[in-house]
Amino acid sequence: MKALRTLVLLLALFALLLAACTRGQTLEDLPTPVNPDTYPTEVFLTQNAPPAGFSTIAFPQVDLNLNRIAGWRYEVLLSFEGVFASTPRQTSASARAQVWFNQLGSARRVVLVTTGELIGQGTQDETTTIEGVRLGPDSFLVRAGVCLTNAGEDAARAADLSAGGLIGGITSAVPTGRQAVLNGVQAWQYQFSNDALVLPNIRPAEGGSIAMSAPGEIWVAPAYNAIVRFYVTLDVQNAILFDRQLPVSGQVIIRFDLYEIGVAQNISVPFGC
Asked: In the chain, where are the structural domains located?
């Protein structure tokens, strides 16, 4: 009988302790179960997250915000190799530019080299070089090594040519968890979908398509709120390039690299002007 009373007492004590431990506890109080398949990725992304405010990014123009920086230099490329759609006739196009900037001097220099019949009025193998320079209110234009006087608005347009106007940018991207010192600054890598691409000089014709042949590469420097690198390779089918009438099919390569970030560039009047 004594043993029975002891057992009842122990059971009562256990019930009291259990009630004390669970009193006020709800489902929200319980720890969230960990998914073993996604947990390592979640930890990696958390440990390598970009600074606050950069969990998602949008740069509809790849050179957005660069005018807020004291100086820089960038290189940009848009090239195409392929055929006129539904024909065996080969064609190509390439537009490559280097741009220098000095914010304090309100100065900008652009050297643009174009090749191929899809750009301008040139033939398949013809190459055209244009240099535009802006120094404060004055603009200068050099074509094929000759300074053109009274170029007026053409000189201003050449000096203000932008990477965003040539290759576009992206509307949305998220971090991959990778970070590195790239082109001299701390940068984070982002990933984006095909639908996020902004392509001002490429559009599908009727029944055409534009798709990344491999994941694109974009790196952003939060300290400057600027894109440091933007690489994309596209497969295009029945697409219009540079507003030409005949659609093409083939591969488009887009490249952008920003260098000497924060360094005011030395820009002067072009030779011969």
From this structure: 54-101+164-259
